[in-house]
Amino acid sequence: MIDGARASLWRRLLHHRGARASLVLLLLLATLVTVVPMISPFEYDQEDLDLIGQPSQPGRAHWFGTDELGQDSLTRVMYGGRISLAVGLASALVATFLGTAIGALAGFFGGTIDAGLMRFTDVILSIPLLPLVLLLSGLFRPGLPLLVMSIGGLTWMGTARVVRSQFLSLRELEFVDAARALGAGNGRLIVRHILPNAAAPIIVSATLAVGSSIMLESALSFLGFGVQPPTPTWGNLLKTASPWIGAAPWLVLPPGLLIFATVLAVNFLGDGLREALEAKQ
Amino acid sequence: MSPQFLLRRLVGMVPLLLGISLVLFMIIHLAPGGPLDAYVDNPSVTPEALAQIKVAYGLDQPLPVQYLKWIKSMAQGVWGYSIRSGRPVTQEIAERLPATLLLGGTALVLSMALALPIGVVTAALRRSAWDHALTFLSFAGISIPVFWLALMMQLLFAISLGWLPVAGYETIGAAGLLDRLAHLAMPAVVLSLATVAAWSRFLRASMVDALGQDYIRTAYAKGHSPAGVLIKHALRNALLPVVTVVSMEMASIISGAVITETVFAWPGIGRLFVESMDGRDYPVLMGLMMMGSAALVVSNLAADVVYALIDPRIRYD
Amino acid sequence: MPAIDALLLTLAAAAIAPQLETAPPVQAAPLRAAPLQAAPMRAAPIHGGTLTVGLPYDIDTLNVYSTAELGDVEAAVVEGLLAPDEHAKYIPVLATEVPTLENGGIQLTQGGSAMRVVYHLRPGVKWHDGADFTAADVKFTWETVRDPRFLAESKDGSQDVTSIDTPDDLTVVVNYRAISPAFASTLFTFGILPRHLLEGHDLNHDVYNQKPVGTGPFKVSEFRRGQYVVLDRNPFYWRRDEQGASLPYLDRVIFKIIASSNTLGALIRAGDVLLAPRIPYMLAKQLQGARNIELVSGPSLGWVHLDFGLKSGSKLRDPVLRRAIAEAINRAALVKAAGGYPQAIRSPIVPLLESLYDSSPDASAPAYDPDAANQALDAAGYRRGPDGYRSKDGAPLQFWITTRSGEIDGEIGEQIIMAELKAIGIRISADNKSGIAYREARYRGDFDLLYSRWVTASDPVYSVFYGSHGPLNGQGYASAELDAALARMETSIEPAPRRAAARDVQRILAQDLPAVPLINMVSIAAKTRRLKNFTTNPTNMTDFIGIARWYLEPSQAGTP
Questions:
Q1: Which residues partner with C515 through β-bridges?
Q2: Which chain B residue has its CA at the smallest distance from C153's CA?
């Protein structure tokens, strides 16, 4: 995209109220979770022996209270944001990359390659997500890279379909013939010529993928799959707080609300992007 | 829609199902321990007994032979016995299926009943306050973690207010329609929330597309009432893509909704799956996974058929 | 516009994704310890009423020998020859007295190297279907349990029996191949199987697994898998109370299967569940002070411990390291996190086993002394790096810790240990497993540190855990000296030699430290104040073994 187009896209995006607010929120959140190690008086895994046993209420020393190990809830929520956001972004990147790669190859080459890749996509789509995830959890040691690969590796299919249909239509256009005539090979054609023009839905898809990745991570944490305590993520914080939902609701609200707010913001941002890109067409 | 179309689609299902079965089979046999996991480290099971079980399950045969035998028995409806309970797998699944279908079906109906009006209204009243409010609510619905919602609802409606039962399928000894509805209320709402949100967004976008078409403007110009145009023309066409989404959701009902079932102690397929996973009850796992996959494949086919029926313009070769 | 379609499909898929949740079933920890609370005996127990029980696990089968869970429901339906009471002492049930050396029930044979146990059976006992209970049923039970085709969890003891004679319908003579002081722990105590219903049947697939027939105070009316079991009173139950009235007092017992601890708590508070046995400390802490609910804690023969993986190549084979780790653990924090219910212990033999427990310092694991731990590690060459973690010769000192995932109390305890070991410079990461995967890791020794628990019978056999060939010894620990001491302990019928051998066992274990004993478990049951005569049972036979005597006071209007 040339600069002028990019600037007007930006303007259109900011015009969308939801997207504007979301951008502000996400930036604020990102800043907070980045600086927390510098500003918090507590470590995220610092247990307070005096407070062990029951979660303690919010107070002057601990603004969000503590969990039943005496760990400061606010610090843990902020640290949790680092991981949840990072996992969300990374998984979305993996899913987008995989989906784009597969969709591009299928859409560009067509024929048997397309048929083969789409059958493969269909097979993966047709197996209920849950069993795959559970089986994976039984096979490997939990950890961040595995978590990112699993989420990314199981959510690329939608992007692949989008990219494929984009490539199917774009490859018929004249500029492709022109580039080919100038001696461009397939690889160059795909990456340098067609892909940039297919960027719009890919970007939107990637944005939405962040939201669903964050949701999936929190759901997977209920499994004990993924990041293990004491390292906090919003998902596993919810898991440890949910038994206390009646007796200590101040533990459950922050991670739940933050997941909610972040996913909401990401969805609005995606929606705003979609409208901004649509208007261009 | 021609019989050849239908036949071709049916035939196309077979390789897909075979492909899925192959993937599932390989996963089970590649998992550390394999299908006899539940017995291998059991101190009460002697090596001789283990060897006997191996032969009984046909696990001493080479893998391709095992695969073919398994396919054959699956097709014949012989799904083996559950390791945990000793009962036939088909019986285990059949027992839990009605509860799952009831919950999933109710959630589905609820989703459709709500998504339809919301989708139509937000599309027709685009950019109005209504649209913004409902859109916000839709996005909110997609963004709430389901287990959090389930717990909060339970806290509010069952524990604090006491309006609804905390959990379970029915009150023992006092089962009836009203009782069942009371137990169904919270889990169905929790389950349907995200789909209502997603479907209404989807329908809205689809409607917006449809409303932008030329024939709509023509209809308005011809003097048809706005409501009539909306429903008779735009909606009919906007529903088409929704059919695909709904059918996918229908199929995933069969896989059960595990956390909802756990929080509300609903005796469904989702919980059966987790218990079987924990107990390495592979016969049940395989049966469940095949069933879930087959449901998705069949629902895709059904979606295509419905699509073709509704839209006479569509021709597949 | 196809692109938009697909995009929105993605959104729809994203909406579906959050519904793909799973939660591991919450396993109740059979946790016990702390002072006994005996319910005061009322003058006139009330007959009638329905007791609703909340079970935190899903029932796999109602066959007590093949279930992987504890046999709560079975204990109300099926009876054995003997049973351990709330003091972990055996009392006669279907036998008329407990066989001992003194009363001639146990006779030494083959020059004192083997034994035979004689049971005199109670006359007039009937199965739930009206048939007579006889010695043939006992013999049948042994034959069935030991049959290798019967795939069962609990076959202990069946291989020790060489033959059984039944000279008449009410006498059973069990011949053992050696001396087995723990003969009553599983076989026959778990329950007797009805020969007339099961002979010739394949017990792996029989309807008995869904509807067991026994001689107990209740019979199974209905079993809805995943939901509930309904038991109704056995009107022909043989036991009567002191006034001669027939037992049981209750009319009906409903066991509800509640997979989620939160839901269980909610149901208890709402009065939908009147009794919840073996609740996690987490739930107990939340229920403290709730109206109309009593928390009953009882001692347990179970204990929590930290095991070391000792396979060859493991750094933990270094005894200095193990000792330092033991000294770094502050049991007080573990007790506090568990609501103060359990008791700190430093021996695997729990204090409740008074005839075996030894509290002398050389028979106890090291006490909390982080300074000593740090010094020892410094001296051994494990230097602290700038991040506080130690390493030696370039190899960082770090380990995985494993516990059963889904068990809240275990996960909390694990966290505390991780923090305490971090304080002495060892990096620990959690690697929790659920269900069968956990069991496998435990049996195969696929762990560095294992935070787990064992519950013994009231005649404990420790060789299964610490003997070189112990079936539950996955660690790789082997000590000839310990094996000898264990053999002495487990083949002496006389109390004095047993105690001396037990002291040796504890001493060797304190020295070698293959595992660090941490806390003695407590069994906490939450119950309505209306339930009387309830006592907790510290053994693996569950609290329900005493259900015949429980009764419910009528509720006042408006209270649960």
A1: C307
A2: B44
